Structure to design on (257 residues):
């Protein structure tokens, strides 16, 4: 989700990488010390275009990656805000001078805190869904300009020269070429937890787990019957119940052997 913003001059921030092993270790330690917080590690976005047609260049990512720190984490781009982004890092491939088609794209990784005591239903759902990548993240950003891009830069049209018809084609194809806009002067405004992000690789890759399978199984029964509040729909509760039941059955068989 990207919104326009008045122009702002931004200086490039030195890139640094969040080490996943260190993030996992800190999550285990901090979760034990801060019982009201659930820490999560996730990828905010990647270099290139997402399915909405919003495109991030490496140059813009180098300037913008630090702006996500201290911004809110919300649920599906709406209320409530359930946490905050604590830190971020920019992962740039060693071969960054080559084209994105011949190397791995750069990405922005983050560590956030979800207020699990205030929002236990959300934190529990996030911790479980992160195990099978069924729940991901979607960036929120402001920007002050953009160039329209056809394909992988086969044609570039400045925003002032683009007509309304081209703008309406964002995220679709024109003459066999994907239409996107390369955002300029990006400021990240937050991140939404969602099941359907525009960047399918923007996933939660570290999370503290809140309940044992037995506790989660009981919680799902209570949620389905309305005895416990849940952010999950009935269909999702049923799907989650099937998964946890299968895990419990596998555990029982292993213990029996």
């Amino acid at each position: 989700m990207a919104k326009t913003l008045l122009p702002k001059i931004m200086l490039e921030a030195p890139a640094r990488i969040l080490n996943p092993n260190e993030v996992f270790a800190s999550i285990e330690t901090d979760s034990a010390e801060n019982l009201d917080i659930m820490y999560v590690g996730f990828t905010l976005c990647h270099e290139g275009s997402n399915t909405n047609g919003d495109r991030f260049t490496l140059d813009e990512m180098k300037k913008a990656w630090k702006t996500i720190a201290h911004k809110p984490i919300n649920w599906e781009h709406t209320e409530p805000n359930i946490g905050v982004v604590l830190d971020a890092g920019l992962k740039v491939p060693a071969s960054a001078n080559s084209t994105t088609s011949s190397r791995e794209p750069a990405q922005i990784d983050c560590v956030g805190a979800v207020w699990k005591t205030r929002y236990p239903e959300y934190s529990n759902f996030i911790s479980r869904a992160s195990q099978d990548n069924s729940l991901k993240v979607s960036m929120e950003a402001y920007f002050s300009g953009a160039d329209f891009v056809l394909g992988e830069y086969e044609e570039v049209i400045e925003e002032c020269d683009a007509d309304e018809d081209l703008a309406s084609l964002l995220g679709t194809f024109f003459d066999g070429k994907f239409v996107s806009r390369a955002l300029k002067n990006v400021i990240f405004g937050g991140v939404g937890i969602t099941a359907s992000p525009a960047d399918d690789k923007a996933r939660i890759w570290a999370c503290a787990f809140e309940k044992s399978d037995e506790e989660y199984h009981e919680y799902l029964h209570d949620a389905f019957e309305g005895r416990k509040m849940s952010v999950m729909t009935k269909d999702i509760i049923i799907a989650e119940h099937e998964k946890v039941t299968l895990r419990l059955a596998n555990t029982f068989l292993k213990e029996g052997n």
Residues 5-13 have pLDDT under 50 and may be disordered.
